[in-house]
């Protein structure tokens, strides 16, 4: 290797160019969901008055008699503005790609039984296929 090539190579930053995550974050979990919205996203208020969006995504796996559908509830903390308005306007059946940060929540139900649920906080949402609107305003799959 020439002197100039070695000098250029050693001058390159020692950063992780493949990731935009913080370098000091030692562990994390990420979940990717590709499926259809189960209903139009709903705006809800938390106990502190903060507005959040909640929506469900259905995914299918298997074929024929082995076909199973899984349902995932997603929470979005997208602030008020055009992005939140866009998410709210999506119709049931819209085909979406969602990246979310999962967390396990543990609690006791009204009968005192220990329960758990998977919490998903949206990090990214992309529409893969919109629902096509008919003349009467109803949506149908494209």
From TrEMBL:
One GO MF term on file is: single-stranded DNA binding
TM helices/strands, residue ranges: none
Q: What is this protein called?
A: Related to single-stranded DNA-binding protein
Determine if DNA-binding is one of this entry's keywords. Answer: yes
Query: Which InterPro entries does its entry note?
Result: NA-bd_OB-fold, Primosome_PriB/ssb
Q: Which Pfam families does this one have? A: SSB
UniProt keyword list: DNA-binding
């Amino acid at each position: 290797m020439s002197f100039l090539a070695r000098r250029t190579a050693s001058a390159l930053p020692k950063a992780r160019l493949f990731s935009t995550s913080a370098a000091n974050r030692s562990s994390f979990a990420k979940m990717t969901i590709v499926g259809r919205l189960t209903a139009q996203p709903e705006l809800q208020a938390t106990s502190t008055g903060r507005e959040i969006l909640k929506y469900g995504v259905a995914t299918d796996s298997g074929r024929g008699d082995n076909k199973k559908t899984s349902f995932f509830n997603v929470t979005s903390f997208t602030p008020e503005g055009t992005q939140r308005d866009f998410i709210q306007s999506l119709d049931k059946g819209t085909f979406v790609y969602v990246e979310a940060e999962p967390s396990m929540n543990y609690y006791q139900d009204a009968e005192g039984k220990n329960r758990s649920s998977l919490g998903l906080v949206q990090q990214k949402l992309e529409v893969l296929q919109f629902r096509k609107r008919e003349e009467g305003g109803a949506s149908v799959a494209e």
